[in-house]
């Protein structure tokens, strides 16, 4: 009989030639447990998914209860389902008043697709402005706006009419014009290596969109649900979008995404044509039940404040001559290393029980994004361990 490892390498499609390949059998809180008995600290959270920690008991209970009541009933949007409507109510009560309608989908990429379609439908325009080093997903629309040519080239032709700007450069905002349906932007760029823009820049971006009638879409798929020390990252800038995309930590570990907009704007997907976006499993009741439980935990346990508090611990404790800088907001952090090859250091850290991952578009930094339920004591211990590991790694390379 083939082992799980053999089945993985022989029958499961791979995304790289060199996957981490750890066999994880269970997870709880900030820990992953491997089949060989080893325990790993998770500094990735499935790339900002597990904000409430792995297998949070209230999320697990919500999933189990909902699965026993009913799972999928009908394509999205036709039936009233308690977890979906309760979630939409709770989420929108925590957003700016105009972000009052939730279109549920399955993933971040689908949320981005939906937001782009809504902007085109509502404005009657086809131009889309996006940013260099932005990541918005793997489907062909999301890939079209992704800001890295290497990842796109083999899949062209992609969508026409896309303009890429440099992030945080006010001088380029004039390229947003009357042909622009929407500007789609991460309020804090993630895969570029956690780039926090100036408040004035984000305000100017909002103003320019208003001047030319373009919709502003904030992709909060990685930054949402407390990760950056605000419930949503746009709160740092006092600027609200016309459309917001969410996914990842939304489901507390279950797959779900959504785009959120004002009611009359969202309504445009219901006519000319009707069924402007169709999704079979979008807003799956079990995922919505998990999302509802997860959001309740984030709000009740004030994980937003905790992200700020613990983020400050990492910043303070991550001191080493090879650490140039720890950058970001809340627990959405990047540590810039000097003269260390990140993929090698990543493998070394994994061998020593810490899982972190690199950024797609920044080879000099690594991500610090543990579950937000991490305790202060755990953070101090992990930061000290990371610093000691950098030391050890540098010595092995001498
Ligand atoms: N947008 C951002 C900012 C992301 O980080 C991601 C995923 O990493 C996506 C969109 C795509 O989400 P998904 O992988 O759920 O399709």
Describe the model.
It is built from 13 helices and 15 strands. It is an alpha/beta fold. It folds into two domains: 4-55 and 302-396, Aspartate Aminotransferase, domain 1 (Alpha-Beta Complex), CATH 3.90.1150; 57-300, Type I PLP-dependent aspartate aminotransferase-like (Major domain) (Aspartate Aminotransferase, domain 2). A seven-stranded mixed sheet has the order 4-10-9-8-7-5-6, sandwiched between helices. Strand 2 (31-34) and strand 3 form a beta hairpin. Helix 3 runs antiparallel to helix 10 (285-300). The longest helix is centred in the C-terminal third of the chain and has 21 residues, at 376-396. The model has no long low-confidence stretch (mean pLDDT 97). Pyridoxal-5'-phosphate (PLP) binds at residues 47, 107-109, 112, 135-137, 186, 190, 219, 221-222, 247.
Low-pLDDT ranges: none
Radius of gyration: 21 Å
Determine the strand fraction and express it as a percent band.
15-25%
- The helix-and-strand class reads alpha/beta
Number of helices: 13
Oligomer: single chain
| CATH architecture level-2 label of the largest domain | 3-Layer(aba) Sandwich
Q: How does the major sheet shape up? A: 7 strands, mixed
What is the number of domains? 2
Placed side by side, the strands forming the largest sheet appear as 4-10-9-8-7-5-6
CATH topology of the largest domain: Aspartate Aminotransferase, domain 2
The average pLDDT score comes to 97
């Amino acid at each position: 009989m083939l082992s799980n490892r053999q089945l993985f390498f022989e029958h499961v499609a791979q995304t790289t030639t060199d996957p981490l390949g750890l066999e994880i059998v269970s997870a709880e809180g900030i820990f992953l447990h491997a089949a060989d008995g080893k325990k790993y600290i998770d500094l990735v959270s499935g790339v900002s998914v597990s904000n409430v920690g792995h297998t949070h008991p209230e999320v697990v209970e919500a999933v189990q209860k909902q699965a026993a009541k009913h799972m999928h009933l009908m394509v999205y949007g036709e039936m009233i389902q308690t977890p979906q409507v309760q979630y939409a109510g709770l989420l929108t009560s925590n957003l700016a008043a105009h972000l009052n309608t939730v279109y549920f989908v399955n993933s971040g990429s689908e949320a981005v697709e939906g937001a782009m379609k809504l902007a085109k439908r509502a404005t009657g325009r086809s131009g889309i402005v996006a940013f260099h080093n932005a990541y918005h997903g793997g489907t062909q629309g999301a890939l079209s706006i992704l800001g890295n040519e290497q990842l796109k080239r083999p899949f062209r032709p992609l969508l026409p009419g896309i303009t890429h700007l440099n992030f945080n450069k006010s001088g380029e905002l004039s390229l947003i014009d009357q042909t622009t349906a929407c500007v789609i932007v991460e309020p804090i760029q993630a895969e570029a290596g956690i780039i926090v823009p100036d408040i004035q820049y984000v305000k100017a971006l909002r103003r320019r969109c208003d001047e030319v009638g373009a919709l502003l879409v904030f992709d909060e798929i990685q930054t949402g649900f407390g990760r950056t020390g605000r419930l949503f990252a746009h709160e740092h800038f006092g600027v609200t979008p016309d459309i917001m995309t969410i996914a990842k930590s939304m489901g507390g570990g279950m797959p779900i995404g959504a785009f959120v907009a004002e009611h009359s704007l969202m309504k445009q997907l219901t006519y000319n044509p009707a069924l402007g976006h169709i999704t079979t499993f979008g807003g799956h009741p079990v995922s919505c039940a998990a999302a509802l439980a997860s959001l309740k935990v984030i709000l009740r346990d004030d994980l937003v404040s905790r992200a700020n508090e613990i983020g400050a611990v990492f910043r303070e404790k991550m001191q080493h001559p090879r650490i140039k800088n720890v950058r970001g907001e809340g627990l959405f952090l990047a540590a810039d290393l000097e003269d260390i090859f990140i993929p090698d250091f990543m493998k070394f850290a994994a061998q020593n029980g810490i899982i972190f991952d690199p950024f797609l578009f920044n080879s000099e930094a690594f991500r610090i994004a543990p579950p937000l339920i991490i305790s202060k004591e755990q953070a101090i211990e992990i930061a000290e361990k990371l610093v000691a590991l950098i030391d050890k790694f540098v010595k092995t390379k001498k």
